[in-house]
Every structure is written in C-alpha cells, then in structure tokens.
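Title: Comparing notes on inverse folding

I've been comparing how different people in this forum approach sequence design from structure. To keep things fair, I'm posting one structure and asking everyone to reply with a full sequence. Here's the target:
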C-alpha cells in the first residue's frame, strides 16, 4: 500500500515537473536503480535518533530505508520522478514480505533464478501504479532490480565492454583481495594502472560519454573543467587509501553484484530494524521546492543526496533558506558534491553553519568514491 500523499500527489498534480531540480526527472525511466551514496557516512553525519523527523531524497530508496534502522519518528522521502518512487515502493514491500536472503536475490546482489516468484510474493502490497510500472517490466525484475537504471546500465557497459579491453577477470578478482595500504598501492601501480586503463577511463568517464550513456546532459549545466580526471583521482583513493575488498559500490561496478559485501540497508544486521520501522516511512512525488513551503518548521535531519549539483548558486541559496525555514534549531544536513561545489557558506545562507572537520573526516572514508566532497551542516 502506498503511503498517504505519494502516488496521490502525482495523479492530482499531473505528471509534470517544472522545478530546476527535476532535470527532466519526470521521464518514465529509472535513472538510478540503486543509491550510489554511502549510507555509513550519511548516518554517522546525521546522528539520527528516536525523536527525529527526517527528510530524504528518495532516489531508489536505499538510504531512506537505511535511515529507518536508526529508529526515527518519521522519514519522508521525496522524488520528482515516479519511476524512482516505484523502486522505493518495491523495496518497501520486499522488506515487508520477503526473507532477508530473498531481498538480496530480488535486488541482484546475489544470483537468482526465482526473481519472478519473489516479485509475485510482494505484488499484493503494491499500489496499482507501482504494479502497472513493474508488471510492464518483467525483464527488469528478472535481471535484478538493482540493474534497472540508466546509471547502472552505464556501469554495465563499462564492466562488459571496457574492462575486458584493460584487465582479465583474474586481475579484477585480484583487486578485491584484502591487502594493507602499501600492498594496495603496489598492486595499483604495478598491475592495475596501465596506459589502457588511463586512456579508456578518460574516454568513458568524459563529460560527453557520461552525458550520452549515464547521466542526463543537463546535469552538467554547472560543471566547469574536466570530469574524467577528477573521477580518476577519486578512483585512485578508492583502491589504495580505502580497501576495495569491503567496498560494495566498487564491487558492483566491476563485477555486477555485491556478493557478501553489502551497502548498509542490505546488511543482515540491519534487516530487522528496517522491517520494524517501515510504517514510519512515507513518500511523495514532488520536488523539494514544492514540498518545503507546505510543511512548516519540523524536520531535524536531511539527506539531500547531491541535489545542489544541478542548481545555480542563487537557486542553491534559495533552497537552503527554505530548508532552514522547515527545520528545528540544531537540524543536521548532509549532502554530496560530485563535480559542482555547493554549500551554505558558498550560497550566503546565514542560518546554516558548516561542520567542516566532520565532513572532511567522513569524506576520506566514503566508499561511494566518485564524489569530490561530502558536506555536513547545521541549522542555527
């Protein structure tokens, strides 16, 4: 059953999104079938507790579900793309009706030949809109719903078409062997960092190719300078300073599954808490700009994904002031910058203060390695 205000808002307002954050997000495609943002650092930044009312960008739903594990009073997830909310609705019913191992199979973390059967088991709990979406896409269910997005398809092309031109399967497997930091650096320099790797990486993760295959070209509106070199630098950090053997995002990117290295919401130790708190989650098809003026000061924790990546400095400042108006004093904000630097300080939003030491420490261990910055701020 869809929560109040979710699919109803879509039908009442019409499937039309005019806010700048939408970026064409009302198209009937899944842009992100997974949330490529590290919930471990998000939860450490937000320090969610039992009294918190949380606002989250929905995306595919992974991190909205992760927030439930901390037992907040309420989590409201927003997205301007109905396909993304279909992903969230499917995950909610999977947590409600399936056993833990079955969820891993449905998502695609592990191999499975029975995903159609698992989907049939959760169908009774889906709204008619979510049913219509997934019933029309049995091939996406069959391959594992975590593969279903445009961004995941971009990584699939990289994994299946580019990596075989650079490294053998054996070398890819060796990347994920546990090593100490010095051993990781030696492996990278002596084995992984070939001229083919550098060349093809720069081509595939260029603005042109990423815009054509991975992200909507409009998402690069405010990006200045090169793209691939910045992502390559963060990749070096991910495979040398961090441990690839414990990185679920890198593992999926290069192998097409998680195996036993899982993001926060899919770890077995978090399953019971998320399931127990599902009724505290609601979702709405709307933009942040449309939602905030209606709600008044109530929220204490904000998962803002990387929404400011797609906004001008002026729009960022306006939206941050609206967030502050919807916040109680002491509210905590967390969000990512990938290619566009955005923050309250840079947008002249006086009520929101940075917490730079915490943000920098968490960014150093961010397993979703491609982001250039992690921002943590507090409302005065």
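Reply #1:
Here's my take.
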């Amino acid at each position: 059953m869809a929560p109040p205000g979710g699919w109803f808002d879509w039908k009442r307002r019409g499937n039309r999104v005019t806010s700048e954050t939408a970026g064409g997000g009302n198209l009937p495609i899944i842009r992100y079938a997974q949330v490529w943002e590290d919930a471990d650092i998000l939860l450490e930044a937000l320090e969610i507790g039992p009294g918190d009312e949380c606002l989250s960008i929905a995306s595919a739903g992974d991190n909205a579900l992760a927030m439930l594990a901390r037992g907040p009073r309420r989590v409201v997830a927003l997205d301007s793309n109905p396909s993304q909310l279909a992903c969230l609705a499917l995950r909610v019913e999977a947590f409600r009706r399936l056993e833990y191992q079955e969820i891993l199979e449905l998502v695609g973390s592990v191999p499975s030949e029975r995903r159609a059967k698992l989907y049939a088991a959760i169908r009774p709990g889906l709204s008619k809109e979510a049913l219509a979406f997934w019933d029309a896409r049995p091939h996406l269910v069959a391959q594992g719903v975590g593969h279903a997005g445009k961004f995941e398809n971009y990584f699939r092309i990289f994994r299946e078409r580019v990596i075989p031109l650079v490294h053998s399967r054996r070398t890819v497997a060796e990347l994920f062997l546990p090593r100490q930091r010095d051993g990781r650096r030696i492996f990278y320099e002596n084995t992984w960092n070939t001229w083919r790797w550098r060349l093809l990486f720069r081509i595939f993760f260029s603005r042109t190719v990423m815009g054509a295959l991975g992200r909507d070209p409009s998402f690069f509106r405010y990006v200045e300078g090169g793209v691939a070199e910045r992502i390559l630098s963060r990749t070096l950090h991910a495979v040398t300073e961090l441990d690839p053997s414990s990185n679920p995002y890198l593992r999926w990117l290069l192998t097409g599954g998680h195996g036993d290295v899982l993001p926060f919401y899919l770890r077995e130790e978090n399953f019971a808490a998320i399931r127990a708190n599902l009724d505290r989650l609601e979702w709405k098809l709307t933009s942040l700009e449309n939602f905030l003026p209606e709600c008044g000061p109530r929220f204490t924790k904000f998962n803002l994904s990387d929404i400011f990546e797609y906004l001008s400095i002026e729009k960022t400042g306006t939206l941050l002031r609206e967030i502050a108006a919807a916040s109680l004093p002491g509210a905590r904000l967390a969000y990512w910058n990938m290619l566009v630097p955005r923050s309250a300080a840079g947008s002249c939003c006086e009520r929101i203060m940075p917490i730079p030491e915490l943000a920098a420490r968490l960014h150093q261990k961010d397993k979703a390695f491609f982001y250039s910055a992690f921002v943590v701020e507090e409302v005065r």
